[in-house]
Design goal:
Helices cover about 35% and strands about 30% of the residues. With about 220 residues, the protein is α/β, with parallel strands linked by helices. The strands form two sheets. It has a six-stranded mixed β-sheet with strand order 6-7-8-3-9-10, sandwiched between helices. The two termini are about 20 Å apart. The structure holds adenosine-5'-triphosphate. The site of adenosine-5'-triphosphate has 11 residues, from β2 and α1.
């Protein structure tokens, strides 16, 4: 059983008299410890695919299966829980909360899910240390560089120990040195913590850190390498 499977997924949008096919019979698999890239032109359906895998959008047909469970079978309440516990998102910009320090950015995820244990505190510190931020625990976002902020966002995505990590152009706001660092760190954590990760990127230089590369064109996904 693969950690993540997408089976024959189609998403259409009705636009008056015409229909846009954002995803056209897309299938892919990502196993634990794998990071795959999706490249492709603007408007080809990459964000739509990430949204569907992250249970933020319902496909018109097809399935997303995480740890053998079809997410379309989940009810609204279970879906919210699924998003919180099984999906970690890393976005283009770090989206940190301005009035929380670095450590609290991570602990907020736990506060939302219930309460913060000392094991949670330890885990958060361990993740931040993995990402080279052990000296920045008490800093606020405006006291960090762009690369540091993005590393906090990566640590935060791993904080709920989800099965799946979804990264939507995580290097878009970084210069190329920082971009390499950030993708390498994501890849290392994915392998160390046995996540199934999908990264959408426009930057072909980042593909060296990925196990497979898929190309999206007009809603059709093909394996490139
Ligand atoms: N809510 C919506 N209603 C109608 N059409 C939509 C909607 N969301 C996306 N689309 C269309 O679906 C197609 C795929 O869009 P999507 O955002 O997935 O592309 P993308 O590959 O992520 O693009 P980019 O690289 O520019 O972010 C596009 O034609 C887009 O216009």
């Amino acid at each position: 059983m693969k950690r993540l499977e997408v089976r024959n997924m189609t998403k259409t949008y009705d636009e008056g008299s015409s229909t846009i096919t954002a995803l056209n019979n897309v299938s892919m698999e990502v196993d634990a410890g794998e990071i795959v890239a999706i490249i492709g032109p603007s408007g080809s359906g990459k964000s739509t695919l990430l949204s569907a895998v992250g249970a933020l959008l319902q496909p018109s047909s097809g399935s997303v299966i995480v740890n053998g469970k079809k997410i379309e079978t989940l009810k609204e309440k279970e879906l919210a829980k699924f998003r919180l516990n099984e999906i970690g998102f890393i976005l283009q910009t770090s989206n940190l909360i301005p009035y929380l320090n670095v450590l609290d950015q991570l602990l907020l995820v736990k506060k939302m899910a219930g309460k913060v244990s000392s094991a949670d505190q330890q885990f958060a510190k361990q993740l931040l240390a993995d990402l080279g931020l052990e000296k920045k625990l008490k800093k606020f976002p405006n006291e960090l560089s762009g690369g540091e902020r993005q590393r906090v966002a990566i640590a935060r995505a791993f904080m709920n120990d989800s099965s799946v990590i979804l990264a939507d152009e995580p290097t878009a706001s970084l210069d190329s040195k920082r971009a390499f660092e950030v993708v390498q760190l994501i890849s290392n954590e994915v392998k160390k913590r046995k996540k199934a990760a999908i990264m959408v990127t426009h930057d072909e230089r980042m593909l060296t850190y990925c196990d497979r590369v898929y190309r999206m064109e007009d809603g059709v996904l093909t394996l490139q390498s």
